[in-house]
Amino acid sequence: MIKKKTRGGVLSGLYIILIMIFFYAPIAVMILYSFNSSKSRSHFAGFSLRWYKELINNDAIMSALAVTLIVAVISAVFATVIGTLAAIGIQSMKRKPQSAIMNFTYIPIVSPEIVMGVSLMLLFALFGMKSGMATLILAHITFNLPYVILSVMPKLRQMDKHLFDAAMDLGCTPVMAFVKVMLPEIMPGIVTGFLMALTFSLDDFNVSYFVSGDKFQTLPILIYSMVRRRVSPEINALSTIIFIVVLVVLIVVNVNDARRGRQIKRKGAAFDE
Hints:
This protein is mainly α. The chain is built from eleven helices and no strands. It has helices at residues 2-33, 50-57, 59-91, 95-110, 113-126, 133-158, 162-169, 174-203, 206-211, 219-227, 233-272. It is globular, with a radius of gyration of 23 Å.
């Protein structure tokens, strides 16, 4: 029995290592070649920051990066606020209407992005809206909402239903009870929803392609147009920066969650004593 468990542990560990290599080897190669002094994609000529310098001086990439960040941040903030309020409203409903609305919430997630892109383009045209920054932000808010709702709903279900009423009985106004009692309980779900919305917005191509117009380009659209000719090493440098920023944000969020978990355990232990 011990030998079988040992073999199983070794095989599972080997499997995890292979999966990690499969996932992260391409990213490691991209990061390595972002410091390549030549344009070659198969030969590393030497360490250099050349492509990072050229990236900063590339107006097209910088403009697309600015548009992408503005759209991602604004749409993620609005989607998080609207999605959180929607999740609270859905949670307060009875079981049958709640399940029906949740089924409708899943539809944008399981439907192809190209369908959403075309439908939003037609909707904006119907209302006479020209494709641009406003349509980009509205489209990103639309497809980010379900992810925020699905991130917040589990935290609402885990929360004690009587906490809000108890806070009201102890003298809190509805706003105070929401801010001081409910919001801290569902904050991990809100943060997760915000990060998911931000990530999907930065990554989106299909929906943005149909609603961006000619004047505004997001990074995925610009990279696609550049890849059709040839992959520039500047894209490697930009992708490396984005990867490092996302990695740092995830580490910070996970560290904060771990600290919060330890604080809750300490408070619980002190209360038991």
